[in-house]
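In the design runs reported in the main text, the only information available to the sequence generator was the tokenized backbone. The following block is the verbatim input for one such run; it is reproduced so that readers can re-run the procedure and compare outputs position by position.
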């Protein structure tokens, strides 16, 4: 007799086997891929992690930030200072950057979370701009001249790729676990109706603070890995709003509020950037036009459209109730 439940479980198992195989392929790609493809996929993984951070905040928690380049820049500068100024192993920068960014996020969370909507968005952007101005005029970080991160030159390409892959895949897995947990349910409740969530007993400030601290720590790691790849850092580059614009573009293209969206969007964004590299005066204009077209034709992004059209649900983030 045909058993629909058994077929459904079989398909579910096959789906996760395919996902596991793909994850292993991307984790090991640094050992067998060509140098050109490795450099491209390295960027894809870093942007994927960054976009998942913005997706967690805006797509699932309703906290639209335009200032998370602040934590990205701090991570990059910790890497530079650890290697160039203090002459110690750059691997310490991972721990130091997380600690600094989490503490900084704790400090700014008190005034930032008193704002809501567009005021929260503007507040986060002002914080990032203030940090950029501080670093431009701070002799301790070499003013606006920046640093060449010579220690990063010693990092082999396969290790750089592995770090980026762990970051991108790891942030995606973390987001799946968060959204299937009680925390994820609370975030979506706050996003949909803050007043109703508070009436139901959800601690608004504590819930927002947890994801804000997680996002700060991950963005710090993204900044470190990106500047191991880029070698040279300046305040205007590290704290540029272009990093956040990239995250927003990726989520718009792929689908904000979905796990799969930033994955698809990161590949699209990096490949488009590679194609448009020889058109610096028009690249942002073309990317903006593409974003507008996607918003008109598929307001929920590529994965949002496919989900509605074909009922695709690769990463099931619905929380199961215990029997």
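Verbatim output:
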């Amino acid at each position: 007799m045909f058993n629909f439940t058994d077929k459904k479980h079989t398909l579910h198992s096959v789906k996760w086997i395919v996902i596991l195989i793909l994850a292993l392929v991307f984790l090991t790609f640094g050992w067998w891929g060509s140098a050109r493809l490795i450099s491209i996929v390295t960027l894809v993984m870093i942007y994927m992690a960054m976009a998942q951070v913005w997706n967690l905040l805006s797509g699932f928690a309703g906290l639209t930030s335009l200032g998370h380049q602040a934590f990205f820049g701090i991570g990059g500068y910790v890497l530079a200072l650890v290697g160039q100024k203090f002459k110690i192993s750059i691997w310490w920068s991972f721990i130091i950057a997380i600690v600094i960014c989490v503490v900084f996020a704790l400090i700014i969370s008190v005034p930032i979370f008193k704002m809501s909507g567009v005021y929260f968005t503007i507040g986060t952007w002002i914080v990032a701009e203030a940090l950029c101005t501080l670093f431009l005029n701070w002799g301790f970080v070499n003013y606006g001249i920046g640093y060449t991160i010579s220690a990063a030159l010693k990092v082999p390409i396969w290790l750089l790729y592995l770090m980026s892959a762990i970051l991108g895949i790891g942030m995606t897995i973390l987001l799946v676990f968060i959204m299937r947990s009680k925390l994820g349910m609370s975030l979506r409740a706050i996003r949909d109706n803050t007043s109703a969530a508070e009436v139901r007993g959800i601690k608004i400030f504590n819930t927002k603070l947890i994801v804000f601290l997680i996002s700060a720590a991950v963005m710090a790691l993204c900044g470190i890995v990106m500047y191991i790849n880029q070698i040279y850092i300046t305040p205007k580059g590290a704290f540029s709003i272009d990093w956040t614009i990239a995250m927003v573009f990726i989520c718009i293209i792929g689908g904000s509020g979905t796990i799969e969206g930033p994955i698809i969007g990161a590949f699209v964004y990096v490949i488009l950037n590679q194609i448009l590299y020889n058109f610096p005066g028009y690249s942002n204009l073309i990317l903006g036009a593409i974003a507008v077209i996607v918003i008109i034709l598929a307001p929920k992004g590529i994965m949002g459209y496919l989900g509605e059209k074909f009922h695709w649900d690769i990463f099931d983030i619905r929380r199961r109730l215990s029997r």
